[in-house]
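Example 3.2
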Amino acid sequence: MKARKLLKLIKRVGAFFEPGKPLAFLYPLYDAADTFFFTPDKRTAGSVHVRDCNDFKRMMINVVLALIPCMLVGVYNVGLQANRLESVPHDWHGSILNALNSAIPALGLFDPHSVLGCFVFGLVFWLPIYIVTMIVGLLWEIVFAGVYKHEVNEGFFVTGFIFPLIVPPTIPLWQVVLAISFGVIIGKEIFGGTGRNFLNPALVARAFLFFAYAGQISGDKVWTATDGVSKATPLSYASQGVDALTQAGYTLHDSFLGFIPGAIGETSTLACLIGMVYLLVLGIASWRVIASMFIGGMGLAALLKGAGAATLAAHPAFALGPAWHFVLGGFAFGMVFMATDPVTSATTRVGQYIYGLLVGALIIVVRTLNPAYPEGVMLVILFGNCVAPLIDHCVVNANIRRRMKRLQAR
């Protein structure tokens, strides 16, 4: 009953957004709200179309739901890492935290043993990043929806949720504005919007920060609490070998669960795997990309570990092996949520295997052979986005040649 009343209200308000009406220029915003609450009543014209109850908007919402475990663990981990350092920021974050602690001391905001306290602590950092990302990104979406005369694309809901998870919690909000603007405009809208871009917008935004503000977005201070109080990320020790990791206090157990310094949502491999299962059950993510990326990355890591054991002058990073490479950095997050982007990854079946193997193997190559850049996931996936059309082109042409030979043989 309430749903019917809401539908009637939305349709009544919609009259003000029709062509020729005063609010016609805001129709994309109205349409986004309308289709968010209710399934569109429009039907495809013509004889060829797909009938499916899971439209694009519902698919995007399911991706956001799959990201929630990463967000929950990541937000908690922000508070945990800060409280382990016994560090309270001396900025507006600190003012909010001190005010909350004074108002509700039972939260235990500065107690590393308080799960709720650490989670609220982390929310003070993550929530502003998310709000700014959504406001700025949606404004650009509305502007370009008016320019291109199309509806607001729901793909930004995923981009707007992923981006706050792949940046440090202490990133300045003005950098968030610049980065998400660059990602939406340069990474997507100049190509015509969702479905026509060949690069992942969230990764484009992250790459902008990496090249424009490298000192604040990468290196040993990926997680900084306040006044230079920081703890180097595991990947900064990874190039020095397993012994350096263990001496710094990092374990496979904590790395798998996500209780280590790093970008907000990338630290927990367990949370990524939970999201992966959800996406695979719904048939949203490509299991071919996930499986081939895992095999390519972990297979090469195993080969390098074996080569390192047989070579006296082996690089220390060779000894890490598949387990460490899988749980460190953004490998699992990139494998589940970014490499599988249906718009920017390969679309042919064989192409998805090639794409995943290439991305997984190159990440390990960058991590082990390039001491200046210990991660590699972001740039390698962007490189994979660039070559995905070429991979599909070669696969399609190979199929055409094979079928032509079969036809000529008849």
